[in-house]
Each structure stands twice: as structure tokens, then as C-alpha cells.
Design goal:
Low-confidence stretches: none
Distance between the termini: 29 Å
Order of helices and strands: HHEHEHEEHEEHEEHEHEHEHHHHHH
Oligomer: single chain
Mean pLDDT: 96
Bound molecules: 6-deoxy-beta-L-fructofuranose, manganese (II) ion
Number of strands: 11
Largest sheet: 6 strands, parallel
């Protein structure tokens, strides 16, 4: 990594300041886990190897349809965004990959962008297409849909955009295309529910045919918004039907915010694992709708239960390697602090899920001892794995206290001086 944006001395000082307390906490946890038959080093290694990609659109200040309150030193283009992503990686050591969105991240030299990223220790995760907005100079509008539009010319335009995203992704070294479309209806009767799905299959078949051999197509379902009565790929069932119709490279992506309140998402994960079609996640949190809040900030137990299904599948020998990504909108916090913090929260859920005594759990489940089974699972969730997460960061040269190091670095103030303020008070998530 040639270009370092946070002074390494700051991280060295952070390590020096926290080493003693971390050693103390780590030793205590090591003893506790040893009594439970768990070698703490195996968990530290697993956590150190765990990565979650960050969304390029997550480093700018997000907003709602009502307003967006731009923060200081907003990134102006994809190069600024990569700088900010590199800072997140330097702080938490768990986010070496960035997921781009086209046309938001379009540039005229993607080869140079790849080098720019590489110099900052970054590479590229799945690339995201966008047929939910009309871009400048676009001949046909997506007002009434894109891949499922009744007009074949609009569908062709949307397919062509996705093919272009694949070509861009190939230049960047991505290995997947994430396909989320907002297509749907606001009124009963407005759209033929079956024919719209058939048009989706027809259009995505053309996209699937253009996928390089080693790529995946990640189909992202969403309950509603921007459509408020019916969404063509509304739930995991529609996504799975489409993936099974398209072929083995088509997988289902679960964005945690894309479900009705109280839907059992870990159950959906278990079903998609069973079908062999769990392709990835967009981690975030929510209390009501697609709130895109920081992962683990509202319901960390749900995040843990999702990882519990992933680890249980692995324990049962079910192969799955879903792509882990954050997809959040940071309306009131510094995006860099939120992204680093959220990456750590995803790691926390993963580490806790690794602590589940699966033999014991299976024992109680077999005997329908509901209380003991629930307690066995909760014991892992209530284990404070903070020393493991910090130790993993320490060993990777990341910060033990990422937010403190970031604030001491003055990086944001530096950006506020070098990046002209963007005066834009309108709505919109980015
Ligand atoms: C849709 C979504 C999708 C992205 C967009 C930024 O709500 O989750 O993954 O394209 O957010
Ligand atoms: Mn998403």
C-alpha cells in the first residue's frame, strides 16, 4: 500500500496506549473460552480473515426524500471516495474491497482507477448497475420500469447498461454484478404481475448470457420503494425463482432492510443456503423500512442469528461463500466512522456465531429442551468478544480504537479544506 492517508504513528500511539488493557481483557477471555473448550486464537484468526466490502456511495452523506445535510469535506468523485474507503480500511482492517455503482462512479479511465485503488490497498467487489434513475443524455426513461418495461426498447437500453457495467467490472477486477431494480407498480391493475416477471426473466437472461465464466449475478429483492404497491422482485421467493430460471451463476442477495418489519431474515438465509443460492448480503439495520442504518445499531441479535445460520451451514458441510457488503446511508454521522464501526459490528456477529457450542445446541434441540437450546445460543451472543476484535485489528496494523485515531488524524478537517463544500440541500439518498 503506497499511499497512506492516516499517519501510521497515530496507530502506533493507539496500540501503545491500549496494549496493556487489551492484553488483560484478552487473557481473561482466553481463560473463559478455554473453559468452554474454545481456543481463542482460532477465533482471532477467523476474524482477522473476515472481510466486508464497503459501498462507494456510503462515504458521502446520505439523505432522505425530505432533505440531505451535506457534511464537511464531502467526496467529489470516485477518487475522493476511494481515499475515504482507504481510510476506513486503515482504521478497521476489514474492508479491503469497494463496491462501485454506475453511473454514480463513472470515470473516463477505469484502468487508472484500478491503479489508484491498488495504491491504497483496495480492490473491487461486486459492481452495481442503476436502472432506477434516468441519467443525463439517456434516450428512454425508466419512469415505468427498466428490465420489465412494456416497451422492448427501454428493456434493451436497461440490458445494455448492465452489459456495460459488466465490461467496466472486468476492467476493475470485479467478479459479480449486483442487480437491483425498482421496477413495480403503485396501483393494483397498473402492471400485469405475471408478465412483468416474465419480462424480467427475458431481460436478465440476456444479462446472464454476457457474464464472464467466473462471475456471479447477485439478484437483490426488495419489498417496496420506489414502487409502493407491487415490486417485480419483491421477496426472496421471486429472487430464488429468477435465479433458478437463469442458471448456477445467478444467486440471491439479501439486503437486511428490504423486508417487512419482523420478517425472520435468518430463516430466509437458511432457505437460500438450502437451495445453494445465497450469493451475498447488504448489511445494515432498520426499525421500520429500508432505513439503511448502521449494521448492528438497532438489532444486533438479528445480525448474530444470520451469522449463526451461516456458521451452522458451514458446520454441517454446506458449501457457501456469500459476498459480504455493507449498504448504508449515513445521514447524520461521519460516514467513515459509521463504516468502520459497522464493519466491526459485522465482525462481532461473526465472532459470536463462531462461539456457539453446536454439539450442545443439537443435543438440546434433539430433546426439544427449548430453554436450554435458547440459552446455549444466547451464551455465544452475550460473550463480549471485544478483545478478539481488537486483537485482530492490532495484529493487522489497524486501530484498536478506530474512531479516536480517526478524530486525532484530522482527516475530515483536511478534506473540508481541500474539497469545496457541496451546496445541495435537496433530498435523495446520495
Ligand atoms: C436499494 C439498494 C441497492 C442499491 C441502492 C443504493 O434500496 O439497497 O442495493 O443499489 O440501495
Ligand atoms: Mn442494497
Amino acid at each position: 500500500m503506497d499511499t497512506v492517508l492516516i499517519d501510521r504513528d497515530l496507530i502506533a500511539a493507539d496500540h501503545a496506549a491500549h496494549a496493556a488493557e487489551l492484553d488483560d481483557d484478552f487473557a481473561a477471555l482466553e481463560r473463559q473460552l478455554a473453559r468452554r473448550g474454545i481456543a481463542i486464537e482460532t477465533i482471532v484468526e477467523a476474524v482477522a480473515a473476515f472481510e466486508v466490502a464497503i459501498p462507494s456511495w456510503g462515504v458521502g452523506t446520505g439523505g432522505t426524500r425530505f432533505a440531505r445535510f451535506p457534511g464537511p469535506g464531502e467526496p467529489r468523485d470516485i477518487f475522493d471516495k476511494l481515499d475515504d474507503c482507504a481510510v476506513v480500511q486503515q482504521l478497521c482492517g476489514a474492508t479491503p474491497e469497494v463496491s462501485l455503482h454506475i453511473p454514480w462512479d463513472r470515470t473516463d479511465d477505469f484502468a487508472r482507477l484500478r491503479v489508484y485503488a491498488h495504491e491504497r490497498g483496495l480492490s473491487f467487489a461486486a459492481i452495481n448497475s442503476n436502472t432506477f434513475q434516468d441519467s443525463a443524455g439517456q434516450p428512454l426513461s425508466y419512469k415505468f420500469g427498466s428490465l420489465t418495461h412494456t416497451d422492448p426498447a427501454v428493456r434493451r437500453q436497461a440490458v445494455e447498461h448492465n452489459l456495460e457495467c459488466i465490461r467496466i467490472g472486468e476492467q476493475l477486477g470485479s467478479k459479480a454484478l449486483t442487480l437491483w431494480i425498482g421496477d413495480g407498480a403503485n396501483f393494483p391493475g397498473q402492471q400485469h404481475l405475471a408478465r412483468a416477471f416474465e419480462r424480467y426473466l427475458d431481460s436478465s437472461t440476456a444479462i446472464y448470457a454476457a457474464l464472464p465464466e467466473d462471475w456471479n449475478l447477485l439478484i437483490e429483492h426488495k419489498l417496496y420503494e420506489p414502487a409502493f404497491y407491487a415490486t417485480v422482485i419483491q421477496d426472496w421467493g421471486s429472487s430464488l425463482l429468477a435465479a433458478q430460471a437463469l442458471g448456477p451463476k445467478a444467486q440471491c442477495l439479501v439486503d437486511l432492510g428490504h423486508h417487512a418489519p419482523n420478517v425472520n431474515i435468518e430463516m430466509i438465509v437458511a432457505r437460500l443456503l438450502h437451495a445453494g443460492r445465497l450469493g451475498g448480503f447488504h448489511f445494515n439495520d432498520s426499525k421500520y423500512g429500508d432505513d439503511d442504518l448502521d449494521a448492528g445499531s438497532i438489532d444486533p441479535f438479528r445480525l448474530f442469528l444470520i451469522f449463526n445460520e451461516l456458521i451452522d451451514a458451514r458446520w454441517r458441510g454446506l458449501p457457501s461463500a456469500p459476498a459480504h457488503m455493507l449498504d448504508q446511508s449515513h445521514n447524520i454521522t461521519d460516514p467513515i466512522e459509521s463504516l468502520a464501526g459497522s464493519a466491526v459490528e459485522v465482525q462481532r456477529a461473526y465472532a459470536q456465531a463462531l462461539l456457539v457450542d453446536r454439539q450442545q445446541l443439537a443435543h438440546w434441540q434433539q430433546r426439544n429442551d427449548a430453554l436450554r437450546a435458547a440459552q446455549t445460543l444466547k451464551r455465544a451472543f452475550t460473550t463480549d468478544v471485544q478483545p478478539i476484535l481488537a486483537r485482530a485489528r492490532q495484529r493487522k496494523g489497524a486501530a484498536i480504537d478506530p474512531v479516536a485515531v480517526y478524530r486525532d488524524s484530522g482527516y475530515r478537517a483536511r478534506c473540508a479544506r481541500t474539497r469545496p463544500a457541496r451546496v445541495f440541500s435537496g433530498g435523495g439518498i446520495v
